[in-house]
């Protein structure tokens, strides 16, 4: 695709720096230019069709080119294209969206703060928690607990919470006080002979031992994705999240649920914390909040967090934090309409109904020679490419997975290679027939790369 450079192709190579991209390799091969989208499909600049198997970046719940979201944006542009929310200013879409989020999120999360992205949201969470503990006269209670392979964003602060090597190496991160605990991936990190229940108890003991070693008076918050996304679609072992919540409550440590990927139905429940049975103090949303049609994220906090912050703003005279586009009226109008569509079309129910079909289809790859483990929940899944016996990748880590993603793209499926995991996360509007086509195209790619790998002596 794009073998003959067009003007856009050449211009992109000449002028653009792409995120999560090898810049020198990009100079050689250039971009796949996506020109339009429709439903679960997108089309490149040469007209080729692809099923968008990752919903853009885990995010386009209602599919591409939804006219109601376009119309919501245009109507708001006509009425009030921009206003800020500093110094007692407000706009109706931001007010209505905060109200809607308080209604949709678990009970007790009554206050919303808007940012432009999940990264900014988690960066703001850190500042809120520090501000809160200073307000409460606990200046030492500033450390965060996260997990290896977690993804919480990419600003200096939120990138420090992220637990992926590529996001730290040569960026001088972590830059805030954070301890990364064992990734809750039983297949990969369970000890020999250890049961899943024993693995869960070991991780909970590690959490409590870390708190006691550091001092509970120094630990501010534990942050986690209910189901880990960009680390490779990692589902937690049974009992893990209720155990984490119990320990955090025991030591007065805030629990932050990062629902940037999980939220608004991805797991077949409104939010991931509901899937796994825990109640957070702070919940972070983005991505499916607007189906990524507009940049927007929201932090929901309970009264315990809000009251401490609000009382301190009364003492100081202000909350010295915010963004030019916090509560942007166009983004909030699109978010409101997006949530209406999710509710009216029962897309959370669609995810729950299709979960058995999607997960069964994934598990049909369990016997494939390239696949070490299959995992997932709701409408999110991953195939880890590894030797089943040793659990190690074939050859250089990530290389074979990148080849599968490229072969899938050539077959008309966009998925994502996350280290050694092929990740899938289709739009919530996906149908049973779409799922069958996704897996057919993925199987073609896996079989092709398996033949190549066998010829090269990798398997």
What report would you give on this structure?
The chain has a 7-stranded mixed β-sheet, with helices on both faces. The chain is built from 17 helices and 15 strands. With 459 residues, the protein is an alpha/beta fold. The chain starts with 6 loop residues before the first helix and ends with a helix. 47% of the residues are buried. The chain has helices at residues 7-15, 23-29, 55-58, 67-79, 92-104, 118-135, 156-161, 165-168, 186-189, 196-214, 240-250, 272-276, 303-316, 329-344, 347-363, 399-410, 432-455, and strands at 34-38, 41-44, 49-52, 109-115, 143-147, 178-181, 219-224, 254-258, 282-285, 297-302, 371-377, 380-385, 413-414, 416-418, 421-424.
For the record, give the distance between the C-alpha atoms at the N and C termini, rounded to a whole number. 28 Å
Q: What is the number of E strands? A: 15
Low-pLDDT regions: none
Strand content: 15-25%
* Rough outline: globular
Roughly what is the average pLDDT, rounded to an integer? 97
Coarse structural class: alpha/beta
Strand order of the largest sheet: 4-10-9-8-7-5-6
Number of helices: 17
In this structure, how is the largest beta sheet organized? 7 strands, mixed
Radius of gyration: 22 Å
Proportion in helices:
40-55%
């Amino acid at each position: 695709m794009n073998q003959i450079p067009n003007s856009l192709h050449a211009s992109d190579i000449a002028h653009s720096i792409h995120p999560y991209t090898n810049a020198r390799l990009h100079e050689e091969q250039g971009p796949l230019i996506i020109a339009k989208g429709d439903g679960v499909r997108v089309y490149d600049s040469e007209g080729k069709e692809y099923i968008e198997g990752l919903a853009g970046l885990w995010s386009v719940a209602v599919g591409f080119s939804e006219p109601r979201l376009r119309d919501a944006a245009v109507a708001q542009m006509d009425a009030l294209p921009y206003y800020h929310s500093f110094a007692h200013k407000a706009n109706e879409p931001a007010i209505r969206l905060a109200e809607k989020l308080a209604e949709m999120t678990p009970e007790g999360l009554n206050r919303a703060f808007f940012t432009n992205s999940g990264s900014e949201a988690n960066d703001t969470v850190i500042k809120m928690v520090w501000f809160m503990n200073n307000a409460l006269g606990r200046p030492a209670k500033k450390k965060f607990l996260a997990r290896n392979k977690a993804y919480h964003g990419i600003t200096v602060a939120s990138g420090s919470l992220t637990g992926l090597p590529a996001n730290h190496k040569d960026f001088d991160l972590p830059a805030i006080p954070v301890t990364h605990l064992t990734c809750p991936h039983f297949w990969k990190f369970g000890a020999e002979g250890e049961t899943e229940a024993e693995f869960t108890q070991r991780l909970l003991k590690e959490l409590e031992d870390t708190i006691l070693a550091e001092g509970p008076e120094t630990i501010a918050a534990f942050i986690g994705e209910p189901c880990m996304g960009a680390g490779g679609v990692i589902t937690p072992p049974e009992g893990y999240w209720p155990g984490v919540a119990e320990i955090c409550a025991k030591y007065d440590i805030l629990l932050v649920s990062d629902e940037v990927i999980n939220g608004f139905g991805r797991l077949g429940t409104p939010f991931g914390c509901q899937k796994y049975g825990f109640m957070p103090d702070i919940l972070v949303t983005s991505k499916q909040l607007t189906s990524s049609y507009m940049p927007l994220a929201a932090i929901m906090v309970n009264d315990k967090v809000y009251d401490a912050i609000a009382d301190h703003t009364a003492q100081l005279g202000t909350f010295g934090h915010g963004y030019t586009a916090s509560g942007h009226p166009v983004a909030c109008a699109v978010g409101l309409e997006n949530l209406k569509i999710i509710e009216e079309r029962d897309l959370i129910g669609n995810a729950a109904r299709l979960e058995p079909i999607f997960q069964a289809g994934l598990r049909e790859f369990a016997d494939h020679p390239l696949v070490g483990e299959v995992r997932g929940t709701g409408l999110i899944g991953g195939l880890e490419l590894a030797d089943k016996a040793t659990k190690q990748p074939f050859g250089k880590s990530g290389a074979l997975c990148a080849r599968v993603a490229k072969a899938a793209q050539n077959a008309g499926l966009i998925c994502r290679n996350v280290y050694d995991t092929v990740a899938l996360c289709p739009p919530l509007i996906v149908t049973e027939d779409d799922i069958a086509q996704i897996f057919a195209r993925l199987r073609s790619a896996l079989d092709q790369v398996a033949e190549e790998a066998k010829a090269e002596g990798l398997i």
